[in-house]
Amino acid sequence: MEFNKTCENPMLICGIELIKEKDTPERRETLFKELTEASFIVGGFPDREPVTGDDGELHITEGTNVRFPMLSNPQNQPFVVAFTDKYEFDKWQPKEKLYPFKISFGELAMTVLAKNSKGVGSPALGIVINPFGSDLVLPKESVAKLAGPVLAKMQQEARAKKEEQQ
Q1: Model-level pTM greater than 0.85?
Q2: What is the spatial distance between Cα 140 and Cα 145, in angstroms, rounded to a whole number?
Q3: What are 33-67's pLDDT values in tens digits?
Q4: How do the domains of the chain map onto residue ranges?
Q5: Which helix (H) or strand (E) segment is 114 a member of?
């Protein structure tokens, strides 16, 4: 996850629009591939004000905790919110200052699927991508299915990195 970074996903946006126009197995496969390879922007509220670094960019200091808000649907069910690009991110205007974080699909999936040290999982029922635009909803079960190979690869890379450091 990277603080104050954005991304663009023109192929993913096109895939979302195509599947909304006509849902076919080929379009679904293309959309799923784009989803799992994409980076997203999520909004976060750091508990400490970001500081301007020597490079002139905003940075969060070590030890900063970040709260990621969720959106609820009309049935009051919470969903993790993600955006394909800065244009979509800027449509969200909460009352507090929202900072952008660039996040991979695997990291995004973890926010929905992971459990804390007490075994309690996220209250989120899934992910909503571009809620003020194309509004793609991924239920938790779909996130788990899509994320399986991505998370396995992330774990493998983490193990390799750890072994490399030893």
Answers
A1: no
A2: 9
A3: 999 999 999 998 889 888 888 988 888 888 888 88
A4: 2-165
A5: none
